Amino acid sequence: MEDIMKSLCCGLGATAPKIEDSKMEASKIKNRFDRKEASSKYCRLTGTGVDKREKRIVKRLLETVDGDIVARSILDMPCGTGRMFPFLSDLGFDVYSADSSPFMVEQAKENLAALGMRVNPAKFAVADAFKTDFDDGQFDIVLCNRLLHHFSSPESRQAILKELRRIAKHFVIVSFFHNASWDAMTFWMKHFFRGTAPTDRIPQKLTTLKQDIDAAGLELIEVKHPRKFISKQCYLLLRPKRNT
Ligand SMILES: C[S@@+](CC[C@H](N)C(=O)[O-])C[C@H]1O[C@@H](n2cnc3c(N)ncnc32)[C@H](O)[C@@H]1O
Questions:
Q1: Against a cut of 0.90, is the pTM above it?
Q2: What does the alpha-carbon distance between residue 231 and residue 209 come to, in Å, rounded to a whole number?
Q3: Which one-letter DSSP state was computed for residue 100?
């Protein structure tokens, strides 16, 4: 289905996605969120149906690995305005949060303090997912929610995945936008009718992500969808390849 839809919508070349230069794309995405207004706006996702569904899926993936390891620490990167923190904390994790935007990190701390949560500043960092100062294997698990879908270039996605692999001791959980979904179909249709070339939030095939995962020295353990074939949001449970 995904191929048919994509060919239908961008086969004529009218809306073929533009693969951006990796460096330019990275700074464009970072700059977009590096504003006070972006952090205030992003708070609105907390408590919505999307928020609840995403947490349910992340919880299931965390339960999957529960028998394999004793996971204590988890890094939520990018943490945005901290919506995952209370949920991960309630699951018993020692939660660390990082984001490239200082505004997001500050907003996260404010939001969590307002909820009466203990905010340890040492566990919040401004960090770039392409290259962090964290140690090798510093966190048992690294969660990377809603970042990869911003990158059209495989180099960018692979560089981020490589860094996540380096700092994760056991597992990495990432989300991406899956092409085999109703949402993706409407995305392509919208661009087709507008005659525009998408540059951001481009749904990808699972096979494309598998190539990125492999190139980053990770292996795919499980795929989970909050709403299969409807929502484009999709989660992958990964672990570092043993021999890399
Ligand atoms: C769509 S928000 C998702 C936030 C959070 N994960 C959530 O699901 O609520 C994307 C976040 O990625 C951050 N970001 C963008 N580029 C980044 C980078 N290179 N490294 C780390 N964070 C980045 C932005 O500042 C923003 O907070």
A1: yes
A2: 17
A3: S
162 vs 238: CA distance, rounded Å: 12
Q: Give kind and range of the element (H or E) at residue 98.
A: strand 94-99
Name all residues whose Cβ lies below 6 A of ligand 1.
26, 29-30, 33, 45, 78, 80, 83, 99-101, 104, 128-130, 145-147
The residue whose CA is least distant from atom 23 of ligand 1 is 100
Contact 105, 125 (CB under 8 A): yes
CA dihedral 193, 198, 200, 206 (to 10 degrees): 90
| 76 bridge partner residues | 97, 143
In whole angstroms, give the CA distance from residue 227 to residue 231: 5
Per-residue pLDDT tens over the stretch 207-231: 999 999 999 999 999 999 999 999 9
Q: Which residues pair with 117 in a beta bridge?
A: none
What tokens does 227 get?
Answer: 């709403």
Q: Whose CA is nearest to atom 26 of ligand 1?
A: 80
Domains of the chain, earliest start first: 4-240 (3.40.50.150)
